[in-house]
Structure formats: structure tokens, C-alpha cells
């Protein structure tokens, strides 16, 4: 009846997961009770859960990502403390638990933390920057988000019921085959990642179609903001490589569930094939994350330097170059597995060549600041911290890409330091910079500046104190994924690293405090003009937060940096463009199909993990029924009357006009103006 | 937020903030072009957007098939003492399968011609034929799998058979799901007639079905033809 599921699946004997589970459940129940008591359900259901508005979906993605980052950070704290305590001793974590922690940490951070954050930014910004009203497929967009959430949900269920994989964030066979991992841990990994992968693919298709087919009049390719370019490149990579992940995990699933022999040691299976397939996805995956991050920096540097981006076209070229070459370097992840010198040389050179494209970008950002009027506000701090951190991460990456050097550092702490350098310094810093930068656009008020600066400095210093020692440890020969340490010489550096984590914790607290304080002071921090940073691309032409239809009338773009041009003209002539003729707008209606699909996907995944076959079939049938009902829907859109559109837009114009007048009176406040 | 003092006039601000060195901006896109510049006329029509998006989805599906093809290529020789490709290929059955599938693609195309002529009856007739031919294909494939399994050539027998069943089965699964989709859509067409969104779906279905045909041609060549001569 319940397959492999029984009461013993709940970790009653292990205090750490048990207490965590209870605490998380208490918080969850508390939130649910609060929402119910306050009567917020109708609002949440109508405005968020069933929303197909790309901005709402973007915000929900970001929320999911932030929560999962914190979850992953908790795992990280446990790992660092365990390693510091387990030098010639037991430590407090049993080995099999420690193995689950590093597997969950990697999986969660990359697939359920960084990925939703990046997708969230793309969802929120791409239509705004292109001057259109929504993405190409709004309802599918909602399905994509909820499937990602479903995957994240399954990963967290593994904490309460059963166990997680002990195989690392990429489940290498034969370790992940049934013979060596008989429990449900790997199955949790497989179904969670598979389901969220489908969601990611949907978003990828959506964004690519949006960028290629839905730009506002005059928005030619070489006028698109660089963030949109990087989103396009990143989503092209998603379309090219996420199917590889789907196929690879499907093969491993067949091996585990039906005794197939894709990757087994016996009957002719090939574990090496898994390495090739998984890294053909895995390496581009890091560029799927880092390219949009580059896009975020490319928006921040010009804005806070008061200058157009240096070398716009070379930036676009470098983005596409990285996009293509990143698919030709996957083998550098297993130089040491004996592919031979010729193959290793080819992949070593290909890997290093990426550094050229990245170098172009770094120089462009630096030259953007050169001769500009640089404002050291919080997004800029994160961006400068990024340049410093990422350059060092990139240099150590080039070192790893030289096969003979990699033989010494492969799977050592040096590698761990390298990829955290690029992934934290590149992606996570970008996310925080972007949150600070676009928060006023999404919510209508700015974040507290002082606490933001504090958060940056603690995170930056904490990051370096945590990871610099790992380079040293790696060179001293410490390998990754150790549960216990029996070499006394490593003690000092491991201790330093723990101190770094403590500093990082302060940074996280500052970040949370910033959010709380800003919400409290939101009236004082209100962004009335919609253009708080003196921005340059079209999202700043809308009010903060933008109306659900984004633009009353689609803008007509007449040059690079669409909004900057419009704004300058308004400042020069001291007046706004004449009022347009407003027309009614068609917008898609809300739909519960996303949450419905995700619900049955979660049930299906859970049933498959525990071998509850009848429930799995039931979930599939229900999902198909839902598909039919959805396809049967007659009304897809509703009309926003012209008066409503006009009303919203007149309010926006009034606030811009006021800003223009203020600017003329004060003769030069940098606060936004124009229309 | 920032309290850096700015120069007196708006004109001066403008000059200040402009790129003083004008490097990396070879004029392109800087000069305002009156009217909708660069021949871009705004968002495409719904029909184009839907077709385009679905086309991209098909590309990603082809990538999935490529992985199974790659696995087949790698594992082809790994028979672990079990039957080889040559021993399991039944050319007559494969010829029939191919005939069914290609014919179904033809009727699918005819159905779309009827759709363009807004002829409900013929659209339905050809869609039904497409579905039946597809069903025949899946039936034959199932028969093949069952006979092989009865003879002990199960996917668990060897890595080669694993790859064989998975590649061919992945295609068969696509055809079956396509059939389910087809049935749903025929019902919808009957009830609602040729509406915009139904036309869009018919376009997508056509793309899907023809793409499956192309994949089958590859399977036919790589698995069955090359298998029968190896
Ligand atoms: C400057 C360009 C880069 C080069 C040359 C490079 C090179 C490498 C090499 C050779 C490895 C394998 C080392 C080994 O296993 O011994 C590696 C691992 C890794 N890299 Fe990079 N990398 C670069 C950029 C990035 C970026 C931008 C990211 C993320 C956003 C990243 C994330 C990772 C991760 C997560 C691993 C760990 C894989 C594992 O679990 O074994 N790298 N990199
Ligand atoms: Cu790589």
C-alpha cells in the first residue's frame, strides 16, 4: 500500500534532523495559521499564487531562491563547524549525515538557490527592458515557476521523511546505483531535480521566444540592454543543455528502478558515459548562472558611473562567445580520469579561452567607471567586490584548466575555493547587487542604505576569511568532502575558516535586518518617480511598482539606452512628450494551472520515490485531467478599458512632470525625471 | 540617496554624464532615428509566437533524443554475451512500422490542408486516420518488445539492449503521448470549431508529429538498417 514508506522513515533517533524538522514545521504551521487568521488567503490566491504576471512570478522566484540560499547556508555552517571540530576527533555529525549535508548543500545552492534567483531576475526584467507587457507564454511561465517550487519542496521533504543523497551534487555512478545507494536518497535527488528541470526549460523557452519575437517598436538587437542579451544567451544554453540533464537523469532512473544497464559496472554499462553527459550539462549550467549575473553588473556600472557602458558591442560579442565556448569545455572536470594527453590538451585550451571573453567584460566594466562620476552606493559596492573576487577566481580557474596542474589540485580544497570564488563572487554578489538595485522597482521603496553597506562589508570580508584558507589547505593536500581530519597541521586554517563563517553570519543578519527596517520605514524610503537611481533602460520609465500592464503605450525606441535618451530630451526641452492616445489593452487572465500541475508533480515525485505505484498513476491521471480542463478554457484574456490605462498613465506622467519641475527649480538633482 | 552636488544647469549635467571619451560607441544606435528605427515593428502576432515557441521546444526534445542516440552509439557493442543488433532486427516488421508512421505523417499534412480550407469533416477524418496509423505503429512496436522479452532479450540483459529499448521506447512514448493529445484535440475541435487557439494547437501538433517522423528516420537508419548489416 505505501511502498517503501513506513514510520521508520522519519528520523526519530537522530536529534539534528528531528529538531530541525520540528522547528521548520512549527514555523510553517505558524505562517499558515497567521495567513488564515488574518484572512489573507483570497489575496494570496488571487494576486500571487494564480498570477500570470511576469513581475509577480519573478518576485516569487526570488523569494524561493532567497529562502533556499538560507537553507543551503545552514548546511554550510554545519560543514565548516564539523570539519573544525573533527580534527583527530569525532565531531558532532555522523559520517552518513555529513555526506547528506554536502550533497544537499551543493544541490540546493546551485539548483534551488542560485537558479531560481537568476530566473527570477530574468522573468522580472526582460519584458520591462524590452518595452512589452508580458512574456510570450504567461500561463506556462506560472507552470514553470511552480514546478521549480515543487522540486525545492521535495528536497526539503527529504529532511523529514527518509534521507537525501550521499553522492555529491552530481550523483556519480556506480556509487549512485542501487547496489551502492539502496536507500531513497538518490531517488529524492533524481525526482526533485527532474521536476524542477522541466520548470527551468519552460522558462528558457519562454524568455527566448520573448526576446526574439516580442520587442517594442524600434528595439533592434543592438539596442537591447546587456542584461537582456545575457538572459537570451543564458536561456539559449538552458534549451541546449537542460534536455541533456533530463535524459541523463532518466537513464539513471531506469537503472535504479528497472535494473537497466546504462551506467552500471556489469553487463556492459559505462559509468564514464555518465561523466560525459552530466558535465555536458553541468559546465554550461555554471554559465547559465553567471551570464545573467554579468548582465546585472552591466546595468549597474553605467548607472552608477553616469556613463554609457563602455564597449557595448564587444560586451554582446563576449556574451555570445562565452555562450558557445562554454559548451566545449566539459571534459576539464575529469582530466584525471585518463582520457589521454591530446584530449586533455584540447579541453584545457578551450577552457582557458573562456577567460579571454571574461577578460573583455572585466575591462569594459573598468573603463565604464573611468572618467565617470562614480557613486559608491550599495549595488556599486557589490559590483566592485565582484570584480576583485571574480578575477582571482578566474585566475585559479585557468590554473585548474591546465591538466598537469589539475592533477595536483583535482578534488582538493583548492578546487572548492576556486568555484566558490566564481560562484559566490560572480553570481551571489550579483544577486545581492541586483536585489538592492531593482527592489524599489518591484516594491516601490528603497532599501536602507547603511544596513546594506554593513551587509556588504561583512559578507565581503567574511567570504575572504572563509575561502582564502581553503586555497592554502588545498595546496597542503587536503581533499574535498572529508568527514574527519587526521592531519594536525590543517588545524589553524580550518579555524580561520570557521571565523570567516561567523563573519558571514553577521552579514546575513544585516541583510535580514535591512529588509525588516526598510519595510518599517517604507514611507520614508518611498520611490515616487519610478527612477530612483537615474537609470538608463526602459524599466525605469515605468512607475514603481509598475502597473500590471507595464506600459500604457508601447515605447518607441530611437537609440541605445532607450530611457536615457527619452529622459535627456525631456530635460533639455523642459517638457514631456505629448500625451498619447490610449487604447484598451488585452491582458491574460489568472490561472491556477501552475499550482495544480506542481501539486500533482509533487505527489507523483513523492510516490515514485517511495515506490507507491498506485498513487503515482493516480497523480498522472489527475494531471492529464487538469490539462484537458485547462485546454477547454474559453476565455484567455480580459480587456483593460482605455480609461483605466489613461488614469494609470496620467498619474505616472504627473509624477515625472513634478520631478522635472523640481529639477529645474533645484537646477540639478540626479533624481529621475522625464518620460 | 546620493548627495553629490551636481553642476548648475541641466545642459551641463547632460554633457558631464555623457561618455567623455566616446570609446566603444562607434556612433551606432546613438543618433536618434526618427520613427520606429531599424525596421523593428513591435511584437509579432500570436500565431507566430506560439509556433516559434513550440519549435524551440521541439529542438530541446531533439536534444533528448540525441542523448539516447549517443548512449546507443556508445553501448552498441556492449552485448555482455547476449544477442547483438543483427540478431534482434526483424526487417519486415520495421518496414511496416515505417510505412505506418510515414503514412500517418502524410495524413497529418492532409488534415492541415483541410484545416486551412476550414473543412471540419475532412480535418477530423484525416486526424482520425493519423491517430489510427499511429496506433498501428505503437502496436507493432509493442509486439516487437514483447516477443523480444519473451525470448530473453530484455533490457536488463545487456547494456546494448538497455540502450536499444530506451531509444526506441522513448520514440514510442512520444507517439503514444501524441496520440493522447490528438484525441483530446479532436474532441475539442468538434465542440469548438476552428477558433484561433485551436488553430494554433493544430499547428503545434503538426510540427510535433512531423518531428517524430524525422526522429524515426534516424532510428530506422541507425538502429535497424545499420543493425541488420552489422
Ligand atoms: C574562468 C573560467 C573558468 C575556468 C577556467 C574553470 C575551470 C574549472 C575546472 C578545470 C574545474 C574542475 C577542477 C577539478 O575537478 O579538478 C572547475 C570546477 C568547477 N567550477 Fe569552474 N572554471 C571557470 C569558471 C567557473 C564559473 C564562472 C563557475 C560558476 C559560476 C564555476 C563553477 C565551478 C564548479 C561548481 C566546479 C566544481 C565541480 C565539481 O563538483 O567537481 N567555474 N572549474
Ligand atoms: Cu566546467
From TrEMBL, chain A:
<dbReference type="GO" id="GO:0009060">
    <property type="term" value="P:aerobic respiration"/>
</dbReference>
<feature type="transmembrane region" description="Helical">
    <location>
        <begin position="143"/>
        <end position="165"/>
    </location>
</feature>
<keyword id="KW-0349">Heme</keyword>
<keyword id="KW-0679">Respiratory chain</keyword>
<feature type="transmembrane region" description="Helical">
    <location>
        <begin position="493"/>
        <end position="517"/>
    </location>
</feature>
<keyword id="KW-0249">Electron transport</keyword>
<keyword id="KW-0813">Transport</keyword>
<protein>
    <submittedName>
        <fullName>Cytochrome o ubiquinol oxidase subunit I</fullName>
    </submittedName>
</protein>
<feature type="transmembrane region" description="Helical">
    <location>
        <begin position="589"/>
        <end position="606"/>
    </location>
</feature>
<feature type="transmembrane region" description="Helical">
    <location>
        <begin position="414"/>
        <end position="439"/>
    </location>
</feature>
<keyword id="KW-0472">Membrane</keyword>
<dbReference type="GO" id="GO:0022904">
    <property type="term" value="P:respiratory electron transport chain"/>
</dbReference>
<feature type="transmembrane region" description="Helical">
    <location>
        <begin position="101"/>
        <end position="122"/>
    </location>
</feature>
<feature type="transmembrane region" description="Helical">
    <location>
        <begin position="378"/>
        <end position="402"/>
    </location>
</feature>
<feature type="transmembrane region" description="Helical">
    <location>
        <begin position="309"/>
        <end position="331"/>
    </location>
</feature>
<dbReference type="InterPro" id="IPR000883">
    <property type="entry name" value="Cyt_C_Oxase_1"/>
</dbReference>
<keyword id="KW-1133">Transmembrane helix</keyword>
<dbReference type="GO" id="GO:0009486">
    <property type="term" value="F:cytochrome bo3 ubiquinol oxidase activity"/>
</dbReference>
<dbReference type="GO" id="GO:0005886">
    <property type="term" value="C:plasma membrane"/>
</dbReference>
<feature type="transmembrane region" description="Helical">
    <location>
        <begin position="226"/>
        <end position="254"/>
    </location>
</feature>
<feature type="domain" description="Cytochrome oxidase subunit I profile">
    <location>
        <begin position="39"/>
        <end position="558"/>
    </location>
</feature>
<keyword id="KW-0479">Metal-binding</keyword>
TrEMBL record, chain B:
<dbReference type="InterPro" id="IPR013833">
    <property type="entry name" value="Cyt_c_oxidase_su3_a-hlx"/>
</dbReference>
<comment type="function">
    <text>Cytochrome bo(3) ubiquinol terminal oxidase is the component of the aerobic respiratory chain of E.coli that predominates when cells are grown at high aeration. Has proton pump activity across the membrane in addition to electron transfer, pumping 2 protons/electron.</text>
</comment>
<feature type="transmembrane region" description="Helical">
    <location>
        <begin position="160"/>
        <end position="182"/>
    </location>
</feature>
<feature type="transmembrane region" description="Helical">
    <location>
        <begin position="52"/>
        <end position="74"/>
    </location>
</feature>
<protein>
    <recommendedName>
        <fullName>Cytochrome bo(3) ubiquinol oxidase subunit 3</fullName>
    </recommendedName>
</protein>
<keyword id="KW-0472">Membrane</keyword>
<dbReference type="InterPro" id="IPR000298">
    <property type="entry name" value="Cyt_c_oxidase-like_su3"/>
</dbReference>
<dbReference type="GO" id="GO:0019646">
    <property type="term" value="P:aerobic electron transport chain"/>
</dbReference>
<dbReference type="InterPro" id="IPR035973">
    <property type="entry name" value="Cyt_c_oxidase_su3-like_sf"/>
</dbReference>
<feature type="region of interest" description="Disordered">
    <location>
        <begin position="15"/>
        <end position="41"/>
    </location>
</feature>
<dbReference type="GO" id="GO:0005886">
    <property type="term" value="C:plasma membrane"/>
</dbReference>
<dbReference type="Pfam" id="PF00510">
    <property type="entry name" value="COX3"/>
</dbReference>
<keyword id="KW-0812">Transmembrane</keyword>
<comment type="similarity">
    <text>Belongs to the cytochrome c oxidase subunit 3 family.</text>
</comment>
<keyword id="KW-1133">Transmembrane helix</keyword>
<feature type="transmembrane region" description="Helical">
    <location>
        <begin position="120"/>
        <end position="140"/>
    </location>
</feature>
<comment type="subunit">
    <text>Heterooctamer of two A chains, two B chains, two C chains and two D chains.</text>
</comment>
<keyword id="KW-1003">Cell membrane</keyword>
<dbReference type="GO" id="GO:0004129">
    <property type="term" value="F:cytochrome-c oxidase activity"/>
</dbReference>
<dbReference type="InterPro" id="IPR024791">
    <property type="entry name" value="Cyt_c/ubiquinol_Oxase_su3"/>
</dbReference>
<feature type="transmembrane region" description="Helical">
    <location>
        <begin position="94"/>
        <end position="113"/>
    </location>
</feature>
<feature type="domain" description="Heme-copper oxidase subunit III family profile">
    <location>
        <begin position="52"/>
        <end position="228"/>
    </location>
</feature>
Amino acid at each position: 500500500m505505501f511502498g517503501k514508506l513506513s514510520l521508520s522513515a522519519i528520523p526519530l533517533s537522530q536529534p539534528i534532523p528531528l529538531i530541525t524538522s520540528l522547528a521548520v514545521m512549527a514555523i510553517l504551521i505558524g505562517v499558515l495559521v497567521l495567513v488564515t487568521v488574518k484572512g489573507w488567503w483570497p489575496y494570496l490566491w488571487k494576486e500571487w499564487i494564480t498570477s500570470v504576471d511576469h513581475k509577480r512570478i519573478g518576485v516569487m522566484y526570488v523569494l524561493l531562491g532567497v529562502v533556499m540560499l538560507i537553507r543551503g547556508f545552514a548546511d554550510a555552517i554545519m560543514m565548516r563547524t564539523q570539519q573544525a571540530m573533527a580534527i583527530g576527533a569525532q565531531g558532532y555529525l555522523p559520517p552518513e549525515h555529513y555526506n547528506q549535508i554536502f550533497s544537499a548543500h551543493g544541490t540546493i545552492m546551485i539548483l534551488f538557490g542560485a537558479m531560481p534567483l537568476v530566473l527570477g531576475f530574468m522573468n522580472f526584467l526582460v519584458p520591462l527592458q524590452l518595452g512589452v507587457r508580458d512574456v510570450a507564454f504567461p500561463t506556462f511561465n506560472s507552470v514553470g515557476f511552480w514546478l521549480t517550487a515543487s522540486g525545492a519542496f521535495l528536497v526539503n521533504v527529504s529532511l523529514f521523511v527518509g534521507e537525501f543523497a550521499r553522492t555529491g551534487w552530481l550523483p556519480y555512478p556506480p556509487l549512485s546505483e542501487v547496489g551502492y545507494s539502496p536507500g531513497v536518497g538518490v531517488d529524492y535527488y533524481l525526482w526533485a531535480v527532474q521536476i524542477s528541470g522541466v520548470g527551468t526549460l519552460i522558462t528558457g523557452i519562454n524568455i527566448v521566444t520573448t526576446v526574439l519575437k516580442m520587442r517594442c517598436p524600434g528595439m533592434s538587437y543592438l539596442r537591447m540592454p546587456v542584461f537582456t542579451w545575457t538572459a537570451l544567451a543564458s536561456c539559449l544554453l538552458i534549451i541546449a543543455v537542460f534536455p541533456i540533464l533530463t535524459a541523463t537523469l532518466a537513464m539513471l532512473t531506469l537503472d535504479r528502478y528497472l535494473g537497466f544497464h546504462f551506467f552500471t559496472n556489469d553487463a556492459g554499462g559505462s559509468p564514464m558515459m555518465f561523466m560525459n553527459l552530466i558535465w555536458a550539462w553541468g559546465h554550461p549550467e555554471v554559465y547559465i548562472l553567471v551570464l545573467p549575473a554579468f548582465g546585472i553588473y552591466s546595468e549597474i556600472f553605467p548607472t552608477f558611473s553616469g556613463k554609457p557602458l563602455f564597449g557595448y558591442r564587444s560586451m554582446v560579442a563576449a556574451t555570445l562567445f562565452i555562450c558557445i565556448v562554454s559548451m566545449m569545455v566539459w571534459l576539464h572536470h575529469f582530466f584525471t580520469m585518463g582520457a589521454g594527453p591530446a584530449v586533455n590538451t584540447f579541453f584545457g585550451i578551450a577552457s582557458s579561452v573562456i577567460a579571454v571573453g571574461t577578460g573583455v567584460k572585466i575591462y569594459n566594466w573598468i573603463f565604464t567607471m573611468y572618467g565617470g562620476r562614480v557613486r559608491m552606493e550599495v549595488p556599486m559596492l557589490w559590483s566592485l567586490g565582484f570584480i576583485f573576487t571574480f578575477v582571482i577566481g578566474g585566475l585559479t580557474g585557468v590554473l585548474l584548466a591546465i591538466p598537469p596542474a589539475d592533477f595536483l589540485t583535482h578534488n582538493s580544497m583548492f578546487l572548492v575555493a576556486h568555484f566558490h570564488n566564481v560562484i559566490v563572487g560572480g553570481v551571489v554578489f550579483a544577486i545581492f547587487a541586483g536585489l538592492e538595485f531593482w527592489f524599489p522597482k518591484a516594491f516601490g521603496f528603497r532599501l536602507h542604505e547603511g544596513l546594506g553597506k554593513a551587509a556588504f562589508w561583512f559578507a565581503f570580508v567574511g567570504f575572504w576569511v572563509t575561502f582564502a584558507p581553503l586555497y592554502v589547505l588545498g595546496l597542503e593536500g587536503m581533499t574535498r568532502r572529508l568527514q574527519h581530519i587526521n592531519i594536525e597541521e590543517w588545524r589553524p586554517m580550518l579555524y580561520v575558516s570557521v571565523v570567516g563563517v561567523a563573519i558571514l553570519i553577521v552579514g546575513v543578519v544585516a541583510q535580514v535586518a535591512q529588509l525588516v527596517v526598510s519595510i518599517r520605514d517604507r514611507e520614508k524610503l518611498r520611490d515616487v518617480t519610478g527612477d530612483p537611481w537615474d537609470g538608463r533602460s526602459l524599466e525605469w520609465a515605468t512607475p514603481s511598482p509598475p502597473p500590471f500592464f507595464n506600459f500604457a503605450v508601447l515605447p518607441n525606441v530611437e537609440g541605445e539606452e532607450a530611457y536615457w535618451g527619452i529622459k535627456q530630451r525631456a530635460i533639455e526641452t523642459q517638457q514631456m512628450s505629448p500625451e498619447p492616445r490610449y487604447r484598451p489593452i488585452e491582458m491574460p487572465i489568472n490561472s491556477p494551472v501552475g499550482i495544480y500541475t506542481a501539486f500533482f508533480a509533487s505527489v507523483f515525485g513523492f510516490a515514485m520515490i517511495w515506490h507507491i505505484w498506485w498513487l503515482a498513476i493516480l497523480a498522472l491521471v489527475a494531471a492529464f485531467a487538469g490539462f484537458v480542463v485547462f485546454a477547454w478554457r474559453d476565455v484567455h484574456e480580459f480587456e483593460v478599458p482605455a480609461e483605466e490605462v489613461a488614469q494609470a498613465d496620467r498619474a505616472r506622467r504627473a509624477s515625472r512632470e513634478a520631478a522635472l519641475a523640481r529639477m529645474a527649480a533645484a537646477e540639478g538633482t540626479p533624481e529621475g525625471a522625464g518620460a | 540617496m546620493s548627495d553629490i552636488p551636481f553642476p548648475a544647469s541641466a545642459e551641463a549635467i547632460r554633457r558631464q554624464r555623457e561618455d567623455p571619451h566616446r570609446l566603444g560607441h562607434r556612433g551606432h544606435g546613438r543618433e536618434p532615428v526618427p520613427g520606429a528605427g531599424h525596421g523593428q515593428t513591435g511584437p509579432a502576432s500570436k500565431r507566430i509566437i506560439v509556433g516559434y515557441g513550440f519549435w524551440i521546444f521541439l529542438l530541446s526534445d531533439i536534444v533528448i533524443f540525441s542523448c539516447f542516440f549517443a548512449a546507443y552509439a556508445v553501448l552498441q557493442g556492449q552485448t555482455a554475451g547476449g544477442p547483438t543488433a543483427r540478431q534482434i532486427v526483424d526487417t519486415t516488421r520495421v518496414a511496416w512500422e515505417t510505412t505506418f508512421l510515414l503514412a500517418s505523417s502524410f495524413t497529418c499534412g492532409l488534415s492541415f490542408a483541410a484545416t486551412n480550407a476550414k473543412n471540419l469533416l475532412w480535418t477530423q477524418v484525416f486526424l482520425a486516420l493519423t491517430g489510427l496509423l499511429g496506433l498501428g505503429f505503437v502496436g507493432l512496436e509493442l509486439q516487437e518488445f514483447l516477443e523480444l522479452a519473451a525470448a530473453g532479450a530484455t533490457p536488463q540483459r545487456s547494456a546494448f539492449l538497455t540502450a536499444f529499448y530506451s531509444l526506441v521506447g522513448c520514440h514510442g512514448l512520444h507517439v503514444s503521448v501524441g496520440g493522447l493529445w490528438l484525441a483530446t484535440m479532436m474532441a475539442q475541435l468538434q465542440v469548438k470549431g476552428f477558433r484561433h487557439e485551436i488553430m494554433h494547437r493544430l499547428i503545434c501538433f503538426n510540427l510535433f508529429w512531423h518531428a517524430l517522423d524525422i526522429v524515426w528516420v534516424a532510428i530506422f537508419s541507425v538502429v535497424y538498417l545499420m543493425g541488420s548489416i552489422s
